[in-house]
Amino acid sequence: MPRKAGKGRTVAVLGLGKVDRRLKRLAPDLQARYAAQAMEAGMSLVLQAAKANAPVDTGELRDAIHMETHSDGSRVSVEVKVGEGDFLGDQYYAAMVEYGTYKMAAHPYMLPAYEDQGPRARALTLRILLAGLRRLANRG
Q: Do 38 and 45 form a contact (C-beta atoms < 8 A)?
């Protein structure tokens, strides 16, 4: 199921039939490991762009942008986020900067990073994942 990304935007990766079939032939722990490595490489492009786009006053907002990988054994997700999340922690204001408020205009930095780097991130993820699966197939 696709996950909501900010203001109700849904992000989903489609068209992975060939990769998905190859991954399902692997043990679940290998599936998660290969998927996580490939997704982290792809999302690092979005991470770099978000940091470059972030408005800088003290630098705390930019420095709090990071990547988190989650796996429940059968599903892996990688997300680029700020601090603890929207309206939480020391960078509670990150969402206000991204989306604006009634008193302050928006200064988007996360969504433009995803829109700009998303296609490259997806292509890199697929390339790394397929290369890893090919290496594994050639070993066995």
A: no
